[in-house]
């Protein structure tokens, strides 16, 4: 069943190299189809391997599986195809070589049997890794020559070349930061100096260890293709180390995050909050942190809800910082739908020189494609002195920063100043700035204001069997289906969905497509929300203001 799924779902030719002896509780070992022998694991942890004859009841199954293996290899490997056409039986060595060639060419997927719980088949799997997968010398890796305009060079995986290594994993241990390094070229020795390419610093390798699960083995040196760990080096995941030469390994592919959460520490003075976030970003390139300039919220992004939950739990356990996560605040906008007049007088007397300014004009909706807002001075009688016009513009911009409805920026508004009045003593820039600010607020209320929400262009790719589920999930989130396109077993759905309704969609998509669906989204435009949503957002904003008081 699993082999059929690999062929049908992943579209990769696959065949078993082993046949299991028994199943579940009766699982005893495996039969090697190529060598035609049984393999049993004995001992407390299956460390002793015993070879034997193929059990009689499996002889036919093994023969049929071998024929199937040869047939599939003949479709992906020329040498086996020639033998198959000539009706010749390939030798064991020829089959091993064909499996290796097809696997490295990614034309074939060998399938092996075993049980981690029962400690059976582990050695066979490791032997297959060594036998069928490429060695470091067979893989082409590239690095960049920083001194030569980042020209691409091929890494030579030999120990007699200049040292080049990549830090690919960081771990906080009892001795401080443990940095895992994969040596791509040259040799790294205990006591030598390595150059951190990103910072330009030189670090001494005081201790070099080879990791065996959670135990360490001190070593004097490691060569090309090996993995080692170092202590006390300040670096990030993906950094390059060399012997002083200006080379840098190609950047690792880091997928875009699929989910974001707002993160707030329960204790505002938590000193370890930023320390923990910086640490996690160094460890994991897929974990992103940024401060939203509008909402002032700390936003964390990652590859799934579980991914982010683990980091929140680690902050509590390792750094004693309890945090509250929530839905990120959406960047709403406010706008107007009709022209509205204003005539506002600002008068304030404080004992000495007071404040006086009167502004007259109107606000009107404009097309945001040209500019988010506009200011026009149509005062012709000189009733507002020219030196105060700039202050009026500043007052208008102050009013745009925080809308009266829900406190979000106002867009799509043009203010036209037509008349006004000034006082020779009491008028000032501050007075006209304040007058224009409150005049805009007053006119805004009579302009039938609307709240705009960001609408995202969403592309979902799923197997055709889940098309109905995905369409239903998009409709449930008030999305508009734009297009659907089907190619073989997959379909791509294009839709426009409000960003406010997209929270948690990655989890829902995984659950309704058995983890086979994926989606991407990008900002399309801002569009008016429905009347009920607008009313709900205003009530929510007023509730927050009341709580602050």
What does this structure look like?
The strands form eight sheets. This protein has an eight-stranded antiparallel sheet with strand order 13-12-18-9-10-17-14-15, with no helix packed on it. Strands 24, 29, 30, 31 and 32 form a five-stranded antiparallel sheet that branches. A four-stranded antiparallel sheet has the order 2-3-4-5, covered by helices on one side. The chain is elongated, with a radius of gyration of 34 Å. The model has no long low-confidence stretch (mean pLDDT 87). The longest helix is centred in the N-terminal third of the chain and has 18 residues, at 59-76. β9 (164-173) and β10 (176-185) form a beta hairpin. α8 crosses α9 (429-445). The chain is of the alpha+beta class. The chain contains twelve helices and 32 strands.
């Amino acid at each position: 069943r699993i082999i059929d799924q690999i062929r049908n779902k992943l579209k990769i030719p696959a065949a078993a190299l082993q046949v299991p002896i028994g199943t579940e509780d009766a699982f005893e070992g495996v039969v090697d189809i190529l060598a035609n022998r049984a393999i049993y694991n004995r001992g407390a942890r299956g460390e002793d391997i015993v070879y034997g004859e193929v059990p009689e009841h499996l002889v036919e199954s093994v023969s049929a599986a071998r024929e199937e293996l040869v047939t599939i290899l003949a479709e992906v490997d020329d040498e086996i195809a020639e033998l198959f056409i000539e009706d010749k039986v390939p030798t064991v060595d020829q089959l091993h070589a064909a499996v290796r060639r097809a696997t490295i060419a990614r034309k074939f997927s060998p399938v092996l049997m075993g049980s981690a719980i029962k400690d059976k088949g582990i050695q066979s799997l490791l032997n297959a890794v060594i036998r069928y997968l490429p060695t470091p010398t067979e893989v082409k890796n590239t690095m960049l020559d920083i001194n030569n305009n980042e020209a691409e060079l091929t890494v030579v995986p030999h120990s007699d070349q200049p040292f080049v290594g990549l830090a690919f994993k960081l771990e906080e241990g009892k001795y401080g930061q443990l940095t895992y390094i994969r040596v791509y070229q040259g040799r790294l020795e205990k006591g030598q100096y390595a150059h951190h390419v990103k910072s330009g610093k030189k670090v001494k390798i005081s201790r070099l260890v080879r990791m065996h699960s959670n135990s360490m083995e001190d070593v004097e040196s490691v060569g090309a293709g090996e993995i080692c760990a170092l202590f006390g080096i300040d670096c990030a995941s993906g950094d390059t180390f060399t012997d002083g030469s200006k080379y840098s390994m190609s950047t690792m592919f880091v997928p875009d995050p699929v989910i974001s959460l707002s993160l707030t520490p329960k204790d505002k003075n938590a000193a370890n909050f930023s320390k923990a976030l910086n640490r996690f970003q160094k460890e994991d390139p897929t974990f992103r942190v940024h401060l939203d300039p509008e909402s002032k919220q700390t936003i964390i992004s990652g590859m799934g809800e579980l991914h982010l939950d683990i980091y929140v739990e680690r902050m509590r356990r390792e750094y004693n910082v309890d945090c509250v996560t929530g839905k990120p605040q959406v960047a709403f906008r406010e706008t107007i739908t009709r022209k509205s007049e204003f005539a506002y007088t600002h008068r304030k007397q404080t004992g000495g020189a007071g404040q006086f300014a009167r502004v007259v004009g109107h606000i009107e909706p404009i097309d945001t494609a040209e500019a988010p807002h506009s200011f026009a001075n149509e005062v012709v009688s000189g009733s507002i002195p020219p030196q105060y016009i700039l202050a009026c513009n500043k007052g208008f911009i102050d009013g745009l920063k925080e809308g009266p409805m829900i406190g979000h920026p106002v867009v799509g508004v043009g203010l036209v100043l037509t008349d006004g009045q000034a006082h020779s003593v009491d008028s000032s820039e501050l007075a006209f700035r304040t007058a224009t600010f409150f005049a805009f607020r007053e006119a805004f209320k009579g302009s039938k204001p609307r709240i705009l929400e960001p609408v995202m262009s969403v592309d979902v790719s799923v197997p055709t069997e889940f098309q109905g589920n995905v369409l239903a999930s998009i409709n449930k989130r008030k999305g508009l289906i734009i297009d659907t396109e089907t190619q073989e077993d997959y379909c791509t759905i294009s839709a426009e969905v409000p960003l406010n309704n997209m929270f948690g969609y990655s989890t829902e998509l995984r659950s309704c497509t058995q983890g086979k669906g994926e989606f991407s989204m990008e900002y399309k435009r801002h569009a008016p929300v429905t009347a009920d949503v607008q009313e709900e957002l205003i009530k929510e904003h007023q509730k927050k203001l009341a709580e602050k008081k």
